[in-house]
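User: I'm writing a short report section on ligand binding and want a predicted complex to refer to. Could you take this sequence and pyridoxal-5'-phosphate and write out the structure as tokens? A short remark afterwards would be nice.
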Amino acid sequence: MSLAAPNYAFAAPFQNPPASPIRSLMPYALQPGNISVAGGYPAQELFDVEGLNAAAEQVAGRLGSCLQYSNIDGQASLRHALAALTAERGLICDPDTELGVTGGSQQALALVSRVMLQPGDHVIIESPAFPNSVQALRYTGATVHTVPSGPDGVDIDALDEMAARIRPKMVCVVASFSNPCGATISRERRLRLLELAVKYQFLIVEDDPYGELRFAGESVPPIAALAEGEARQWAVYLSTMSKTMAPSLRIGWLVAPPEVRRRCVGAKAADDMASSAWIQEIVAQYLADGRYTKHVPRIRAAYGARCDAMARSLRESLSDRIVFSQPEGGMFFWARLNGDIDATRLLPYAIEHGVVYVPGKVFYADPEQADLHAMRMSFATMNEAQIAEGMARLGRALQACEANAPVSITLP
Ligand SMILES: Cc1ncc(COP(=O)(O)O)c(C=O)c1O
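Assistant: Sure. The structure tokens for the complex follow:
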């Protein structure tokens, strides 16, 4: 006999856990024969298995020293290698006082949020945004506000107006090839963000999982790299190996002013005591061997070709029915159906025709603001032929939907 669950007195942010609409699409995405542009995963066939194996073999020779509890802020070898990598992106930092290794950039955001925010505080995130980022902010109990974001990134004037009104302690953006919009904030607008950070004394937190995946156009330095004088004290930078090496490594890092970084390390001690020293040493070895420098251009080229294929196939198969701007990097297209049909209504038809995408509305923290016609499509995991076939299927699904044809798929 099963017992009814007691009335647990859950903490406020956990009382009504949100469903994960993206995860609920996974069974369809994984169904053999289906083409999925739904996930935010990097391409599995592009992982450098050989290179990682070679790095792991070298570390195996000194395995004993990697199995102990280790520095909470990360292995010195990796901190120094990540500081060098971050410097190549234009951001110079001290690996001992400003940089800390984290369990992906997701943990980095959770740590910064936890040390800065509590109930009664205000934080702003761009909208649409990655739902797990919004959750990391919400779990602090702070009030989460959203500012609209579009093809050029966050609306700076709207942010200025909102910051003057609510005095946030933190503002979070993905400045390069955002998830879901694929948008990049220009250098000028990054400078304006820094001005606002100083003016209103908030931390500007840039989450940068995708910046290194640029396959077209000119790179723009991280926001913190553009900060001069006091502004640098308000700029935090987060990044990760998830999209360039492999997400299961769970290796990311934060670069923050020493006082912020010190508290994040304390919060990590309470979280997981440290990221695995073994995995950190493998990543450090991989970087030291120069394998990363060779690997990233390979994935950039592959993603660039896939991105072109998606743009081409969308034009061919959906021509004037869909509007999008082609990203210069990252993994995502943010496209908009321009007829009467919205992205949720189309989805069961798309799945029935064997293609899966994510309706844009799931990326809005405030459902009232959601653009119901938007959809996120990733070009990362499918090859060019699959992308062409997927977009052709989407075109046929749209025709079936417009014709009001019966559809067998029922989504929650
Ligand atoms: C904007 C953004 N931040 C963070 C993450 C999580 O990255 P990590 O695997 O480094 O925790 C993702 C992954 O999709 C993402 O899109």
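A remark for your report: Residues 50-289 form a domain with the Aspartate Aminotransferase; domain 2 fold (CATH 3.40.640.10). Residues 291-318 form the longest helix (28 residues).
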